[in-house]
Request: fold
Amino acid sequence: MDPLLNGMNVAILVTDGFEQVELTEPKKALEAAGALTRIVSDKFDKVKGMHHDQPGDEFTVDLLLREADAKAFDAVLLPGGKVNAAALRNMGEAQRFVQNMEEDHKPIAAICHGAWLLVSAGMVEGRTLTSFPALEQDIRSAGGNWVDQEVVVDSNLISSRTPEDIPAFNDKMVEVISDRMRAHLRGTPDEHAVGLASS
Reply:
């Protein structure tokens, strides 16, 4: 993993009902690369994951969503889980958080149902991305280009379909965030920030 992630602050935005492995495995990958992660949620104290349709573990919330400032973070991770994503997409504070990240062209990594928040925030029009297959019509209806690939990078947006895609998702997520870090150190735009789409 790229040591240039050292000191990068990554928000993990969830509420109850997220797919647990879509938080834990990307979180491990980010931290192994030197990033600092914080779980951001509308829930006080703890947030609960799921293993598909079975209850998962509880995780400590580091920062309340209503107190979170997108300016304090370098990237955001959006785990899936239908219950989690369906709730987040209707939260104005969650929509504003990702919109603020997008305004600053910061990396946004969404897996599975995580892309629902981007749809509700009006952020998929003209973008190419993937997701859990059930979101295909929602993304297309919102003006996005949905593709069936394990991971897709469109500028600052990284997306994947399911837990099976996590290894590829993690690799691309770390790559895009490290590209941004290198560009920041150089004081020049990185290739993702100037609109290069790849997969």
Helices lie at 21-32, 82-88, 92-103, 115-120, 136-141, 166-186. Residues 190-199 have pLDDT under 50 and may be disordered. The first strand starts at residue 9 and ends at 13. The two ends are 19 Å apart (CA to CA).
